[in-house]
Design goal:
heterodimer; A: 260 residues; B: alpha+beta; Cytochrome-c3 Hydrogenase, chain B; 3-stranded antiparallel β-sheet; metal-binding (chain A); iron (chain A); oxidoreductase activity (chain A)
Amino acid sequence: MAASGRTPRLAVWKFASCDGCQLTLLDCEDELLGIAAAVEIAYFPEATRGTIRGHYDLSLVEGSITTPHDAERIHEVRRRSTHLVTIGACATAGGIQGLRNFADVAEYISVVYARPDYIETLATSTPIAAHVPVDFELRGCPIAKSQLVEVITAFLAGRRPVTPAHSVCIECKLKGNVCVMVAHGTPCLGPVTHAGCGALCPSYHRGCYGCYGPMETPNPAPLSQALTELGMGKRDLQRIYRTFNANAPAFREESERHDA
Amino acid sequence: MTRKTIKVSYLARVEGEGAFSVVVRNGKVTSAELSIFEPPRFFESLLRGRAFSEAPDITARICGICPVAYQMSTVQAMENALGITVTGPLRNLRRLLYCGEWIESHALHIYLLHAPDFLGYAGAIDMARDHGDAVRRGLALKKAGNDIMALLGGREIHPINVRVGGFYRVPHRRELATLAETLKRARELADETLRWVAGFDFPERERDYTFVALTHSEDYPLSEGRIASSRGLDIGVDQYEDYFLETHVARSTALQSRLSDGASYLVGPLARYALNFDRLPPSVRQAAHEAGLGPVCRNPYQSILVRAVEVLFACEEALRIIEAYEAPEQAAIEITPCAGIGHGATEAPRGLLYHRYRLEPDGTIIDAKIVPPTSQNQACIEEDLANFVESFLDLPDEALRHRCEQTVRNYDPCISCATHFLRLDMDRGSP
C-alpha cells in the first residue's frame, strides 16, 4: 500500500482516551516484532521518542475530540495519512467521556477542578468521523488484539479488514454458551451489541454491557421491553445504554426513550 | 548572564500526553515544571448518578495500563461503604489478578519504556536490533502477566470479571493450575531481568524522599493496608484526606497532591520497597541484595531495579496463590445497597491509588474522589528535575534533554490516569 518499494509507515495518534487501545498494539507480544519488521513505526510516542515526519500510510487513531486544539489537530493527522483507522470506542463513538454530551460541561469541570478557568475543553466528546473522513472504524472498549492485527494485515495487503458486524448473540451461539438472559434472567445487551469480543461477558456468567457499541442495524426497543420484564426500571435502562458507546446513535436514541 | 531552556513538548514513552520545561540561569535551575495537556475526561463528575455496581467497569477506563488498580480501589471503597469485607479465596484471587497487572505493567515499563534510556535507543523496537533476546524476554514476561489477567479477568485491558463483592465467575482449581508452568518460567525470566538491569549504568543521585505506601502486617502490599510514610505517618485509609491535599496549577489538567504541610512525597516502587522490605519473601530479598540493593533505595534512576524486584515478587506471590487455591462456593458476596461513605486505597504499579465514594440508600453514587499515583508524584518529579539537572549541565543539549526525559520516566508516569496529569521545556540560558 505504500509507494512502490518503500516499507509502509505506521503512525499511532492519541486524543482523549485511556491509552488502552494503543497499548493493545504493545500487548501483541507474539506479533509485535513481526509487525515492526513489516511496517516502519514512524510515529508512536507511547513506544518511541524517535519520530519520522512527513506522510504516513496507515494512521491508527485512538481517543475522542474534546478540546479546540484536538479538533484542529485531527485535520492535520488526516492530511498526513493515506489511510486513517479509528481504534476503539472513544475514537468511534466518543467514549465514556461522551457522557458530558448529556450534561452541563461547566458543572462537570467545577466538580473536579478548583480553577475552572485553567481548563480548556469542548462541551461535547465526539468521534473522529464527526470531524474528518475515516477509512475504517474498529470497535471495542478496548479493541481486540486479533482484530487489530487483522486491520494492520488487511491494510498492508490492500483489502478491507474482516470484522463481522453481527451481534454478540451470534458469538455466544458459536461458542456454545448458555444464554445468560434466557437461562438465568441476567440483563444482557448481547442482542444489540457489535461482535468482536468473543462473547466475553456471558462466558463469565455476566450480561454483555455493550462495550463494542451497537451492531449493524440493531433493534433495541424489544430488548428494552425484555429488560423491563426482568425488573429493570427506566433509570437502569438509561444507564445500561449510556456507558462507553453512549453517543453511538442507536444507543443514544434508545437511552433517550427512557428519560425518567 | 547565560540563559538556557530545555524543552520537550511531547514526552515519549509515557502513558498519556505531557511535556516539561527546565529553565537554567547562570548554571542554576530557576524552574522545573511538568505540564500536562492530556484532555480532562471528568470521571468524578460522570460517576455521579451511576449505580455502585457500575463503578468498577467505569473507573477501569481511567487507565488502559492499570485498569485492575482502578477496579481494586473502587471495589474496596464500595465494600467499605456497604459494610462488607472480602476475605479468603476471593481476596487471594484479587491479589492474583493484581500480580498479573504488576507483572504486565512493570515489564512494559522496564523493557519497552525505560531500558532504552539506559542503553541509548529511541525505543524498544530499535533496541531489539541489538538486544533482541532481551526484548523477547521482556515481551514473554509481559505476556505472562497478561495471561493471568486474561484468565482471571476475561481480558488484559479492562477486565470484565471484577465486581463489588467478588467476581462474576471464579476459576476452578485446575483452570488456575494451567498458569503455573507459565509463571514458573516467568519467575526465571524475572530473575534474568533483575540481573540484566543490575548491569545498567546508573547516575549516582539520591534525594531524601518522604516515601508513602501501604503497609500490611503480613503481606507486601497490593490490594490493602494502612497508609504509612518514611517519616512516621501511620493512618487508616479513611484518614487520607486529612493528611494529603490536592491543588490545581495552571499548567496542568492534573491536580497535584502534597502532604498537608505542603511537602512533596513519593509513591510507587521505591516507597513500597523501603516501607515493606521485610514483607518480601527471603528469596526475593536475597535476589535484591545480589542486584546491589539495600533495604532502602533513594536513587530514582534505580527504580527500574526495584520494579524488577517487584516483578520477581509478583511471580512468586502468584505461584503461591495458585498452589494454595481452592475455589470458593460463591463467586461474590451478596450485597444489599445502603447509604454510606467508603474509602479504598491499593497499590497501583505506579503507587498509591485512593478512592472515596458516597452512596445514596439505593446504592447510587452521590460523589466520588479519585487520587491517582502520578498526581501524587508530580511535585517529586519537578523537584528531581530541579535538583539533578544542574549536575548534568556539562552534557550536550540532546544528551541533556534525554537525561531529563529519563528523570521523568523514572516514575513511570501515567498521564492518562493523572488527568485530572506532562511537557519538557529546557531553558538553560543560551550564551
